[in-house]
Amino acid sequence: MPEIDLRREPITSPSAAALFRALNAELSERYPEPGANHFRIDADEVAEGRGAFVVAYAGGGPVGCGAIRRLDGETAEVKRMYVEPAARGQGVGRLVLAALEEEARRLGVRSLVLETGERQPESLRLYSGAGFVRIPPFGEYEASPLSVCMEKRIDERAPDR
Protein backbone atom coordinates (compact mmCIF):
# COMPACT_ATOMS: atom_id res chain seq x y z
CA MET A 1 0.00 0.00 0.00
CA PRO A 2 1.24 3.54 -0.74
CA GLU A 3 2.04 5.90 2.11
CA ILE A 4 -1.00 6.94 4.16
CA ASP A 5 -1.81 10.65 4.36
CA LEU A 6 -4.19 11.59 7.19
CA ARG A 7 -6.15 14.81 6.74
CA ARG A 8 -8.62 16.54 8.96
CA GLU A 9 -11.44 17.70 6.71
CA PRO A 10 -15.13 18.62 6.73
CA ILE A 11 -17.56 15.78 7.24
CA THR A 12 -19.45 17.21 4.26
CA SER A 13 -16.54 16.66 1.83
CA PRO A 14 -16.92 14.49 -1.29
CA SER A 15 -14.46 11.98 0.21
CA ALA A 16 -16.55 11.70 3.36
CA ALA A 17 -19.72 11.19 1.30
CA ALA A 18 -18.13 8.37 -0.71
CA LEU A 19 -16.76 6.63 2.39
CA PHE A 20 -20.08 6.97 4.24
CA ARG A 21 -21.96 5.45 1.27
CA ALA A 22 -19.59 2.49 1.32
CA LEU A 23 -19.84 2.16 5.11
CA ASN A 24 -23.65 2.27 5.05
CA ALA A 25 -23.79 -0.32 2.26
CA GLU A 26 -21.54 -2.66 4.22
CA LEU A 27 -23.56 -2.18 7.41
CA SER A 28 -26.80 -2.87 5.52
CA GLU A 29 -25.31 -6.11 4.24
CA ARG A 30 -24.08 -7.21 7.67
CA TYR A 31 -27.25 -6.12 9.49
CA PRO A 32 -30.21 -6.71 7.13
CA GLU A 33 -32.81 -6.99 9.92
CA PRO A 34 -35.75 -4.62 9.78
CA GLY A 35 -35.09 -1.74 12.13
CA ALA A 36 -31.31 -2.16 12.12
CA ASN A 37 -30.00 1.33 12.72
CA HIS A 38 -26.93 2.99 11.24
CA PHE A 39 -26.12 5.84 13.55
CA ARG A 40 -25.05 9.15 12.04
CA ILE A 41 -23.04 12.19 13.00
CA ASP A 42 -23.73 15.85 12.21
CA ALA A 43 -21.22 18.40 10.94
CA ASP A 44 -21.54 20.60 14.03
CA GLU A 45 -20.57 17.65 16.26
CA VAL A 46 -17.11 17.50 14.67
CA ALA A 47 -16.53 21.25 14.44
CA GLU A 48 -13.31 22.64 15.90
CA GLY A 49 -13.44 22.44 19.69
CA ARG A 50 -16.21 19.81 19.69
CA GLY A 51 -14.70 16.96 17.69
CA ALA A 52 -12.84 16.04 14.54
CA PHE A 53 -13.20 14.12 11.28
CA VAL A 54 -10.16 12.50 9.67
CA VAL A 55 -9.78 10.92 6.22
CA ALA A 56 -6.95 8.56 5.29
CA TYR A 57 -5.67 8.83 1.72
CA ALA A 58 -3.47 6.35 -0.14
CA GLY A 59 -2.52 6.54 -3.79
CA GLY A 60 -4.41 9.81 -4.12
CA GLY A 61 -7.80 8.45 -3.04
CA PRO A 62 -9.67 8.13 0.25
CA VAL A 63 -9.32 4.69 1.87
CA GLY A 64 -10.62 5.26 5.39
CA CYS A 65 -12.11 7.68 7.86
CA GLY A 66 -13.19 8.24 11.42
CA ALA A 67 -14.60 10.92 13.68
CA ILE A 68 -14.85 11.84 17.33
CA ARG A 69 -17.50 13.96 18.97
CA ARG A 70 -17.35 15.33 22.49
CA LEU A 71 -20.13 13.93 24.66
CA ASP A 72 -19.22 15.92 27.79
CA GLY A 73 -16.16 17.44 29.45
CA GLU A 74 -14.57 14.06 30.11
CA THR A 75 -15.73 11.85 27.22
CA ALA A 76 -15.64 11.76 23.43
CA GLU A 77 -17.19 9.15 21.16
CA VAL A 78 -15.49 7.51 18.16
CA LYS A 79 -17.87 7.54 15.19
CA ARG A 80 -18.01 6.48 11.54
CA MET A 81 -14.78 4.46 11.50
CA TYR A 82 -14.38 2.81 8.13
CA VAL A 83 -11.61 1.37 5.96
CA GLU A 84 -12.16 0.29 2.35
CA PRO A 85 -11.99 -3.53 2.08
CA ALA A 86 -8.95 -3.43 -0.23
CA ALA A 87 -7.03 -1.36 2.35
CA ARG A 88 -7.85 -3.50 5.39
CA GLY A 89 -5.12 -5.30 7.27
CA GLN A 90 -2.55 -2.67 6.33
CA GLY A 91 -2.71 -0.41 9.37
CA VAL A 92 -5.09 2.25 8.05
CA GLY A 93 -7.61 1.75 10.87
CA ARG A 94 -4.85 1.92 13.50
CA LEU A 95 -3.56 5.18 12.04
CA VAL A 96 -7.03 6.75 11.92
CA LEU A 97 -7.79 5.62 15.47
CA ALA A 98 -4.44 6.99 16.73
CA ALA A 99 -5.17 10.34 15.05
CA LEU A 100 -8.60 10.45 16.72
CA GLU A 101 -7.02 9.67 20.09
CA GLU A 102 -4.64 12.60 19.57
CA GLU A 103 -7.61 14.84 18.77
CA ALA A 104 -9.32 13.61 21.95
CA ARG A 105 -6.26 14.57 23.98
CA ARG A 106 -6.28 17.98 22.31
CA LEU A 107 -9.93 18.35 23.35
CA GLY A 108 -8.94 17.49 26.92
CA VAL A 109 -11.15 14.44 27.34
CA ARG A 110 -10.07 11.49 29.47
CA SER A 111 -12.18 8.74 27.96
CA LEU A 112 -13.04 7.54 24.46
CA VAL A 113 -16.15 5.43 23.99
CA LEU A 114 -17.54 3.78 20.89
CA GLU A 115 -20.19 1.48 19.52
CA THR A 116 -19.59 -1.24 16.97
CA GLY A 117 -21.49 -4.37 16.10
CA GLU A 118 -21.10 -7.99 17.05
CA ARG A 119 -20.92 -8.89 13.34
CA GLN A 120 -17.80 -6.76 12.81
CA PRO A 121 -14.96 -8.96 14.08
CA GLU A 122 -12.27 -6.87 12.39
CA SER A 123 -13.52 -3.79 14.24
CA LEU A 124 -13.59 -5.64 17.53
CA ARG A 125 -9.97 -6.78 16.98
CA LEU A 126 -8.86 -3.25 16.06
CA TYR A 127 -10.43 -1.67 19.13
CA SER A 128 -9.33 -4.40 21.55
CA GLY A 129 -5.80 -4.19 20.16
CA ALA A 130 -5.84 -0.42 20.75
CA GLY A 131 -6.75 -0.86 24.43
CA PHE A 132 -10.53 -0.52 24.35
CA VAL A 133 -12.55 -2.73 26.72
CA ARG A 134 -16.22 -3.68 26.60
CA ILE A 135 -18.66 -1.61 28.63
CA PRO A 136 -22.44 -1.72 29.02
CA PRO A 137 -24.42 -0.08 26.20
CA PHE A 138 -24.76 3.68 26.63
CA GLY A 139 -26.96 6.44 25.26
CA GLU A 140 -28.67 5.73 21.95
CA TYR A 141 -27.22 2.19 21.89
CA GLU A 142 -28.94 0.91 25.05
CA ALA A 143 -31.81 -0.59 23.07
CA SER A 144 -29.66 -2.00 20.26
CA PRO A 145 -29.21 -5.76 20.84
CA LEU A 146 -26.46 -6.13 18.22
CA SER A 147 -24.33 -3.27 19.59
CA VAL A 148 -21.01 -3.74 21.34
CA CYS A 149 -19.88 -0.70 23.33
CA MET A 150 -16.28 -0.12 24.37
CA GLU A 151 -14.17 2.43 26.24
CA LYS A 152 -10.55 3.48 26.53
CA ARG A 153 -9.22 5.74 29.25
CA ILE A 154 -6.62 8.18 27.94
CA ASP A 155 -4.38 10.73 29.51
CA GLU A 156 -3.14 14.04 28.21
CA ARG A 157 0.24 12.71 27.10
CA ALA A 158 0.73 11.09 23.73
CA PRO A 159 2.02 7.53 23.99
CA ASP A 160 5.69 6.96 23.24
CA ARG A 161 6.15 6.00 19.61
Proportion of beta-strand residues: 25-35%
CATH H-tier superfamily: Gcn5-related N-acetyltransferase (GNAT)
What CATH architecture do you see?
A: 3-Layer(aba) Sandwich
Which residues form runs of ≥5 with pLDDT under 50? Answer: none
CA-based shape: globular
The total tally of domains equals: 1
> Largest sheet, described in full?
7 strands, mixed
DSSP helix fraction: 25-40%
Strand order of the largest sheet: 1-2-3-4-5-7-6
CATH topology: Aminopeptidase
Number of strands: 7
Evaluate the radius of gyration.
15 Å
The sequence of SSEs as H and E is EHEEEHEHEE
Report on this model:
With 161 residues, this protein is α+β, with helices and mostly antiparallel strands. It has a single domain, classed as Aminopeptidase, CATH 3.40.630. The protein is 26% helix and 30% strand. The protein has a seven-stranded mixed β-sheet, with helices on both faces. The longest helix has 17 residues, at 14-30. The two termini are 21 Å apart. The relative contact order is 0.16.
Summarize the structure.
The protein has 161 residues and is an alpha+beta fold. The chain is built from 3 helices and 7 strands; from the N terminus they run E-H-E-E-E-H-E-H-E-E.
Reconstruct the topology from this structure.
Elements: E1 5-8, H1 14-30, E2 51-58, E3 61-70, E4 75-83, H2 92-107, E5 111-117, H3 121-129, E6 133-135, E7 147-153
Parallel strand pairs: 4-5
Antiparallel strand pairs: 1-2, 2-3, 3-4, 5-7, 6-7
